[in-house]
Specification:
single chain, six-stranded antiparallel β-sheet, two-stranded antiparallel ribbon, 7 helices
Amino acid sequence: MQDIVAKVRASSTPPTREGGAFDKWLEQNDVLDLLQASAHAEHFIVYAGFGCTFLHAIVVPLASLDPLDVEDVMKWNGNCWSSWGITQSFDAETARLSPPLDGLCSKTLAKGEQLVYGRDFSGRTSRDKNYFEFLQKFTHVFGLHYLPERNAYCRIDRRGDIEDIIRILSSPDEKTLGWHYHHSRATAAR
């Protein structure tokens, strides 16, 4: 896992503008390679926000991606701080519950579900008023529970030990480094 984190951290650091390195960095080809490799690895990152990196995974039904409307997807405008809300009409006579991806500006991605939710609560007694939650449907289906002492969503494995399935990684100099999801453990227990 640390290898993936190191690669994402390295890709977040812009090189100097000399010799075309900066222009090559802007293409982010190394990040695309990393994400493709990560999708088939035991661990993968579902959210990262630090430095020049922003990765925010959204689960979208395959039917919505066939055929892929690239122009529509490129219109996305969102982040993990989008949450459920109430949308009220201009005349204030009608209101509706609006889902997190409602204002995403992409019809394709709006059909999906956000995995990570950034939350902010001034009533928290800890130094950091911000925290993160994972999609409740997912945590319930896989029997995951958040354990603050492990900074992870965990469950009991077949031997009776606690296992981390979704870990929150952070460092003092970066708000949130990312989340990783331990793919093989979650799917093996189904």
